[in-house]
């Protein structure tokens, strides 16, 4: 049975079901597990000995929250993360996650500090846009995506490479002024709960995270999820997505 | 530097600090990570091929919550957990964790169902009493501890073997009627955040979980924590506790 690639609507519905009264998960729980899986995927792709300096780029929404959690776990995995978080989300949860990271001494930089942080990084975690993204790309992320695309630093993207369509996949992008924004091509991708339509033709290293999806939910959405190994929170997918 | 064994007061203070405004953790986050580490310790001690049937005994407090989380992760690790939860805590969190487990089809039994569940188990997770326990042992856990002690099933205890003094260690116990309660001797122990005074002379397999303790907190409490391997949430301690 082939793994299912889901669209934006199914991705939203799965999240809503998990956090509904019936699903009973809190966002704190799910974000903790999602962020932990992102950190594990990075650690399994880029060894700490060669890639200790990780620039974690966090967007304003839930995916930015996953990035904040991942940065904290990367610190505990002996990496030296730096967080770029130019548009902190208003939710109390994001503020707490940011504080947890600051309590570990993880540097948090703004757009002014971004270029030097990118220059000093061994690898970038892209937790900017998730499955709710719609173009055009809003500032400051237009310049950030172009800088990432033009950089030689390897990128691990969370859920869908930022700027790619969650269903359309790799696409040409513009900012709100109609200026071109470069498209990133991450070396590594970690899909959360199930891979998205837009990653169907992605050919890099591909992880799946979200070892919390209830069996009956996976069955109803016909996700055909692979088995995770051992006690890991991630499983590597074959490039084709065929299992 | 030797690992520090902490007393009840330090254990309580560490928990309070983590969840204070300064520490910024929610109980949902910490319980998720603690329960995941318990599930990992069990999986690393009792392989699923020989010990798939796990009876997770949950007490009325936070340690019972850790057990509920662990049962859910054990299910995702391909174990067949059963939850014994005779005195569900009143907190909304416990109700949600129980619902998450029920949503996976994990059986939940009461005291009437306990003997058959113990009989059918390959291994027991003891998440009954944590570092706030004070004797005597209240019903129905007096009979439960005696049944566990008299059973030949291997036990993994969470934080401190239930009934042991968090500082005093292995001790003779009575129930509220002054009747003797048997003392359990778990094959495996997982200490959370730091080992407790009462486990100093524990000689079984000993794991440490809680890969979220901030460095400065560990330093202030002189915990001298060991390094965790790879992306695991647990690290095995030498029997003596010396590192």
Automatic annotation (TrEMBL), chains A, B:
It comes from the Eukaryota. K(+) binds at residues 63, 126, 162. Binds 1 potassium ion per subunit. GO terms for cellular component: mitochondrion. The keyword Protein biosynthesis does not apply. Its cofactor is K(+). It is found in: Cytoplasm; Mitochondrion. Its main location: cytoplasm. Belongs to the NnrE/AIBP family. Catalyzes the epimerization of the S- and R-forms of NAD(P)HX, a damaged form of NAD(P)H that is a result of enzymatic or heat-dependent hydration. This is a prerequisite for the S-specific NAD(P)H-hydrate dehydratase to allow the repair of both epimers of NAD(P)HX. HAMAP family: NADHX_epimerase (MF_01966). This is NAD(P)H-hydrate epimerase. It comes from Cutaneotrichosporon spelunceum.
